[in-house]
User: Fold this.
Amino acid sequence: MRKFLNKHLISIAIYAVSALILLSVTLSFYNKKVMSDALEIQEQADMVFRVSENTLLNIRQMDISARGYALIREDGFLFWSVANARKENRENFNKLDSLFAIQGYSDPVNYPKLKAGFKKYADMYEEMVKHLKNDDLEAYKDLLRADYGRTFWPINDAFTTKLYEFEENLVDKAQSRYERAIFQNTIVQLLLLLIGLPTLIFILIKLRKDEKNRTALLINLRENNKKYLFNDGDTRFRGAAKILNGSIDNLKKAAQYVRKVASGEFDVEWEGMTEENRELNKKNLAGQLIEMKKQMQLADVENKKRIWATEGLSKLSEIIRNSEQDTKQLTFESTKYLTQYLGAQQGSLFILIQDEDDENQKHLELSAAYAFDRQKFLNKKVEIGQGLIGQTYLERETLLLTEIPQNYTFIKSGLGDSTPTCLAIVPMLYNENVQALIELASFKKFEEHEVKFLEKAGEYVASAIATTQNNEKTRILLEQMQQQAEEMRAQEEELRQNMEELEATQEEMRRKEKMMEEKMQKAN
Assistant:
């Protein structure tokens, strides 16, 4: 514990003083809020008192106005009409409702009675004025004798007594909170003076003592900077400012280097790195960041390859969907797209043709050929095992050639015929069987990821070819079945006509036979 205190004494002292300062500031803000709340509560209470008094004043003004009119029958004495009194007290009661909602005050007994009493009081004076205008003094005197004020004023006294007690209590509590906050703030200020001042003196003494160790720490920082961050190869001793600035500059270099590498700028170089000090920085942060850049660069290349392949397969799938109704169109569009996407100059696609009567009789037939943005119409049949195409079918492995056999193929252009520098023949597999083969010729060598993409694309195309061929077979069978059904319907119609003719003949024979019988009977 003692060791911990010695080690962290300055920190503890600073934290203690900071806590006292923070507490003092917090209490100051708290006092300000308490004062604001107290003033707000006082203003609310004053407003409640004013509105309550205005309500009674409103009744008195209405009373004085009516009594003056009763004595001197001139409309000018009706300076405060019942309508004015009703409007004024509606506003007063709305204000009281809002203030009571804010303060949380509730008087479910007297407050509703007060509202009802004022309405009744206003109704009474309205009747008085009406009787006076009609010169009905007896009715007017009867209302005076009833003296509703004896009933109303006790209701008002009960309401105001309870309300004023609540408001005074609310103000007293707010004032008490404010005085308590002031006292607490005074205590904290005294503590800050008694504890903070000695603590600050102690910190100054401690800092002077620690100043002797600063040079050693700076030297240690310089060596560690070279060991772990970046070593510029300079062995001279530099002052504190240069050592610190050097460390900061190296950290900035590291941050800038990481930021540029993260944004994809893989051509960035570490400032200050030379052939002379490169060996010194193999194991520190600078060397590791340079190695990290190389790895990220490789990863970025691989990621771009994956994106390229994914986008290519997505577009190929769309082409297949739009062309899967016809094998010729499907193979041509696929060959055209793959030739263009891989930057090849010539492409050919061979599909497997199998004899329907003999499964062992099969061959490869050129279904589509494309070169230099135009379709090539060729008729070409390749036997199994014949040439590079037939051999690749048997081996079921991709064939990639950078040395093309003489006179094997030429790429035709406006400049004449040229022999390609790279040839790729890829079997297109569907359910582990070779459904077709694609042959691409190019002036550039196909990269490994391009060959893998072509193999994966081959699976898509092979599946589509198999589906399209099955659909075409199904369509042909349906057409044959429809033709047979038509022939059967024609035969049935012919048979029906023959039956009708036979029935007609039989009917004629029966008629003639009957006539013969009748003649024989007459003859007998």
In short: Confidence is low (pLDDT under 50) at residues 373-377. The radius of gyration is 54 Å. The CA atoms of residues 392 and 400 lie 10 Å apart.
